[in-house]
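Now for our specimen.

. . .
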Amino acid sequence: MSNAPQKEKTSNKITKKPLKRHPALVPLSKDHHFGLLLCWKIRTGIKKSIKEDRIAAYVDYFYKNHLLTHFEEEEKYIFSMLDEKDEKRKRAESQHRKIGRLVERLYSEPDKTKVTLGLIEEEVESHIRFEERDLFPYIQAAIDEDTLEQLRQKIEEIHEPTLEVWEDQFWEK
């Protein structure tokens, strides 16, 4: 039986029935929620004309305190279950590197901060959508249940939930 998302007909339109996320991947999917919130905060800050350095400081904090660890866990424990030449693995790892370069660019090219913030927002959102809609279902279908269960135990042992400590909540002002 395939683990591919099933299509379900409701009234006159066809919708994709969501694939139940394997418990091994749930903590990382929850992290993705906070990554999407990062994107929303960037967009909101820009729309409210918040000083770019305030938004950039938050992005730098979030990247160093949350995204880096999240990326490391994915690469070490999840992506490593796929062949190094696997196109989906290579795409996800490439996206991680690109996001890191964009965050570095906030400080190496301060005259382009607003543009860079927009690129970070777009890249993070695109990356999360790729992992949630494509990569994670692919992994669930490609990896056997025993291996996924071992992964679940390992993730449960090492994963820290996202706890944010940031006083300048520019997105609320």
